Amino acid sequence: MIAAPDRTPLTREFFDRPVLDVAPDLLGRILVRTTPDGPIELRLTEVEAYDGPNDPGSHAYRGRTARNDVMFGPPGHVYVYFTYGMWHCMNLVCGPGGWASAVLLRAGEVTEGAELARKRRLSARNDKELAKGPARLATALGVDRSLDGTDACAPEGSPLTLLTGTPVHSDQVRSGPRTGVAGDGGVHPWRFWIANDPTVSPYRAHAPRRRST
């Protein structure tokens, strides 16, 4: 008999660790998004680590800005950014305050509230595609910049919470280069995913954007 996922909330201490320890340990955890229409729950299946000043691929590599300010705050908070003029992406801040490391949530399996996620992801061909990629994940959960800075470790009332879930055994965790990261940061094998999980997004190397003529 398979045990039910552990619904104990993750503590701030969980996130107050080096980003390369936190990132693979997030696989199998449950993200709960509370909305006025009801909750949506997501089992995390793919993430990427970004290590602040040590990482040319990080938004915080060149220092603190209005955009990345939350990354420098306490661990366990949510960093949401807007990209390509159309998509939001969600990260979880980790490590000691001031260091600016975070984990990008790349993909997951919607385990509750799929009917709500489907209304936001009308282009998804099936439920496995609802949160297959970081922008799709944020869209399915209704996450935008209004949630930037949310405390996911708040004792109660937070719109975003992480539960213990069912941690993934290390022999089921895979790692490789991060998707779409250019330059020196592109070589880091800091993308982590659950082996053979159908909700994991496909890897794509960085491709320079062409300017329209």
UniProtKB/TrEMBL annotation:
- Annotated Gene3D superfamilies: Methylpurine-DNA glycosylase (MPG)
Q: Which residues form the signal peptide?
A: none
Q: Which domain of life is it from?
A: Bacteria
* GO function terms (MF aspect): hydrolase activity, acting on glycosyl bonds
Alphabetized, the UniProt keywords read: DNA damage, DNA repair, Glycosidase, Hydrolase
* InterPro entries with a match to the protein in the record: Formyl_transferase-like_C_sf, MPG, MPG_sf
Give the EC number(s) under which this enzyme is classified.
3.2.2.-
Q: Which HAMAP family match?
A: 3MGH
Q: Which family does it belong to?
A: Belongs to the DNA glycosylase MPG family.
**Name this polypeptide is given:** Putative 3-methyladenine DNA glycosylase
